[in-house]
C-alpha cells in the first residue's frame, strides 16, 4: 500500500480525474472564453510566485558551481533533443505523427523546479546547486524552448510564427516571473511562509490548462485518435526515453568526476521535464486542435519521472545506512 501511495500521489489522481472530466464534460460555448481567461490568470500567478520565491543568495551560491550547471543545461537542452531525434526511426512508426510530435516537444522543454529540488533534498544531494540549476533551466527555457521548437519541429503543429510565439510566451510567463522577483523584497518573506497553500496555485494552474486543452482535444476527437493500445505504446516509449536519460546523466556525472551529492543534482535536474512550463507553452506553440495530443506525452512522462525518481531518491538517501528524511513538496 505504501508503495502504491508513493507511485500515485493525490495530485496524480486529481489529474486523472480532470482528464476524465474533460472527456465527459469539455468546456463549450461561452465557457471556453471563461476557462481560457481563468487559465491565463492562473499561469501568470504561478510564474509570479516562482519569481517571488527565487532567492538571490541561492542564485549566487549555486551559480559558483558552473561545471555542474553547464552539464545540466546541456543535458536538458542538447542531450534530450538529440536523443529524441535519434529515437525517431524506432518510435515514430509506433506512435504516429501526432504523438511523435508531442514526444519531440517533450524533449525540448526545460526541467522542473519544485520536484527536482525536493528529490535532491530527499536524496541528500547538493540542494543550493539544484535550486540554481532548476530555476535557471525554467527561466532560460522560456526563450530556448521556442527557438529549439522552431529548429526541430519547423512549422509542424505551429500555432503562430516563432517570433510571435517567443513574444507571447515572454508576456505570459517571463513578465510575471520578473515582476514577482522584483517584488521579492516586500513579499518574499510572506510567500516563503505560505508554501503549504501556495503549492495549490502551482497544481491548480496545471489542472486548469489540462482541462481546457484536453476539453478542446476531446471535441476534436482525441480519444478516437489515441485508443488504449496507442496509449500503452506511448507509455512504453516514455519509459525507454527516461531510462536512457537517467543512465546517461548518471554516467556523465561520474565520467566528469562529480561527487555523489553533485551527481544527485545532475541526475534529478538534468533528467526531468516541466509540466508547469510545458503545458501553457504548448498553447502558444501549437494550434488549438493539436494541443491535447502535444501535451499527452508530457503528462505520461511527467508521472513516470515522478514515480521513478521517488524510488531513486530514497535509494540515494540510504546509500550510507542513514534514515530517509521525507521533505514535503
Descriptive report:
It is built from 17 helices and no strands. By secondary structure, the chain is mostly helical. It has a single domain, classed as Na+/H+ antiporter like fold (Up-down Bundle), CATH 1.20.1530.20. Helix 3 packs antiparallel against helix 12, helix 14 packs antiparallel against helix 15 (260-270) and helix 16 (275-285) packs antiparallel against helix 17 (291-317).
Task: Name the descriptors.
Na+/H+ antiporter like fold, 329 residues, mainly alpha
CATH class: Mainly Alpha
Proportion of helical residues: over 70%
User: What is the element string, with H for helices and E for strands?
Assistant: HHHHHHHHHHHHHHHHH
Biggest beta sheet summary? none
Q: What is the correct CATH architecture? A: Up-down Bundle
Count of discrete alpha- or pi-helical segments spanning 4 or more residues: 17
CATH fold label: Na+/H+ antiporter like fold
What is the terminal separation in angstroms?
A: 20 Å
* Low-confidence parts: 323-329
Total count of domains: 1
Radius of gyration: 19 Å
Please state the overall shape, judged from the principal axes of the Cα atoms.
globular
Question: What class would the helix/strand composition place it in?
Answer: mainly alpha
Kindly report the average pLDDT value. Answer: 81
